[in-house]
């Protein structure tokens, strides 16, 4: 629906922001969920004082990260939009900046509160938060972020003609709040370390997602491939959710045996073989098999829902479903394998996988998912599976 709104038509760079900002939930909320799940599982949130300290420090931290990454994502969108076409509009650049920073900030605030509630609730009910918190963060993250981005960018686009000063004011307001969040995050020992060292994965992940956004922008802008817009959040969301659950589980499993960097029996591997990742009797290998098997029924439900709601511009033919499923299975297979290697590699390098692995994995999920989907649409077009109703 959103691809037909004026702001998406006339400021197409907003498409580049979509994977970068939807990816933020992977960078921030899912790492928050993974961090707090591990803390809950190893008993660091049992007293009210410890709990309050963890909550305030972590909420302040994700506000800092959201504001900075939202700002950088808008710069990336401006650059990626400017390079292919060669024209630059300062009004559009400020609109992108204001939309991106406001969306990132508000989405992180809302999702952070939901995450804390879910983790405390899971703990009280005796459920492992690792299995619940990360997928909820991922799915709600997509919905809330996309709704906010479209609403805010549409509102600010409307203001461009009559009140041009609104956009710079919005940027300045959220950036001015930064010092307050930095001071609060610094007071907590657990978040202070992430405040100093946790930028690299978040920023690299945003850049990777922006490349996925560039692919999306180029593909959706072509009327022949307008149908891709409806499937992109689905394929990226499912891949990101599944790999985040796996990374969070492996990380908690490693934390239970010691601290990052300690050579334990659980993390001896350099680069695992596909057999050890998917076919061994190890507990993490079993969960990888379960997560991989969820792909087909999960996507069939989504495809049926999209079809019954008459969403998108693509007729769901058998050949389309085969290509789509192949792309989805390949994406999750690659991601689960990379997760198994990456979490153990980071653990051996004295890096906490809760903070470092999920941003990379969800961003790679966005890039691989968007790339494979675009490739599928191009192949289908070449072999003659062309929809008569594309663009209706």
Can you offer a commentary on this structure?
With 392 residues, the protein is mainly α. It has two domains: 1-187, Orthogonal Bundle (Tetracycline Repressor, domain 2); 200-391, SLC41 divalent cation transporters, integral membrane domain (Tetracycline Repressor, domain 2, Orthogonal Bundle). The protein is built from 16 helices and no strands. It has helices at 6-10, 14-27, 29-41, 48-85, 90-125, 129-162, 166-176, 178-186, 189-197, 199-220, 228-255, 274-278, 283-293, 295-308, 318-348, 353-382. Helix 4 (48-85) runs parallel beside helix 9. The N and C termini lie close together (12 Å). The relative contact order is 0.14. Residues 388-392 have low confidence and may be disordered.
Quickly describe the structure.
This protein is mainly α and 392 residues long.
Overall number of domains = 2
Characterize the biggest β-sheet.
Answer: none
Indicate the CATH class of the largest domain. Answer: Mainly Alpha
The dominant shape is globular
N-to-C terminal Cα separation, in Å?
12 Å
How many β-strand stretches? Answer: 0
Keywords: Ion transport, Magnesium, Membrane, Transmembrane, Transmembrane helix, Transport
Domain SLC41A/MgtE integral membrane: 18-152, 232-375
Transmembrane segments: 59-81, 93-120, 132-152, 164-184, 196-216, 288-306, 318-338, 358-383
InterPro entries: SLC41_membr_dom, SLC41_membr_dom_sf, SLC41A1-3
Characteristics of this structure?
about 400 residues; mainly alpha; Tetracycline Repressor, domain 2; about 0% strand; disordered C terminus; SLC41A1-3; monoatomic cation transmembrane transporter activity; SLC41_membr_dom; SLC41_membr_dom_sf; transmembrane
């Amino acid at each position: 629906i959103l691809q037909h709104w004026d702001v998406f038509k006339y400021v197409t760079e907003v498409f580049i922001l979509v994977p970068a900002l939807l990816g933020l939930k992977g960078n921030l909320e899912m790492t928050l969920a993974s961090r707090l799940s591990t803390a809950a599982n190893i008993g660091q949130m049992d007293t009210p004082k410890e709990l309050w300290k963890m909550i305030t420090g972590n909420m302040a931290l994700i506000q800092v990260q959201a504001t900075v990454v939202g700002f950088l994502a808008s710069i990336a969108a401006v650059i990626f939009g400017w390079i292919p076409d060669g024209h630059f509009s300062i009004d559009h650049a400020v609109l992108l900046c204001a939309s991106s920073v406001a969306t990132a900030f508000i989405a992180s605030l809302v999702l952070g509160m939901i995450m804390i509630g879910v983790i405390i609730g899971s703990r009280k009910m005796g459920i492992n938060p690792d299995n619940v918190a990360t997928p909820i963060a991922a799915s709600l993250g997509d919905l809330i972020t996309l709704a906010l981005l479209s609403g805010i960018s549409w509102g600010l686009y409307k203001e461009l003609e009559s009140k041009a000063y609104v956009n710079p004011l919005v940027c300045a307001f959220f950036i001015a709040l930064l010092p307050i969040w930095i001071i609060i995050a610094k007071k907590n020992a657990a978040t202070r370390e992430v405040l100093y060292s946790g930028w690299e994965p978040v920023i690299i992940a945003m850049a990777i997602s922006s490349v996925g956004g560039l692919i999306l922008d180029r593909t959706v802008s072509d009327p022949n491939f307008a149908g891709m817009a409806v499937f992109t959040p689905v394929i990226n969301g499912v891949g990101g959710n599944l790999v985040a659950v796996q990374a969070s589980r492996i990380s908690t499993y490693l934390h239970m045996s010691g601290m990052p960097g300690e050579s334990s029996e659980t993390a001896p591997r350099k680069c695992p073989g596909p057999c050890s990742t998917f076919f061994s009797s190890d507990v993490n290998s079993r969960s990888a098999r379960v997560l991989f098997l969820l792909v087909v029924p999960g996507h069939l439900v989504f495809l049926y829902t999209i079809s019954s709601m008459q969403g998108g511009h693509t007729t769901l033919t058998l050949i389309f479903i085969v290509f789509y499923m192949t792309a989805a299975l390949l994406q999750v297979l690659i991601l689960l394998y990379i997760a198994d290697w990456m979490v153990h590699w980071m653990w051996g390098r004295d890096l906490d996988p809760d903070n470092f692995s999920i941003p990379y994995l969800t961003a790679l999920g966005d890039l691989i998912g968007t790339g494979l989907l675009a490739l599928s649409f191009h192949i289908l077009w070449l072999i003659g599976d062309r929809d008569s109703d594309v663009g209706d």
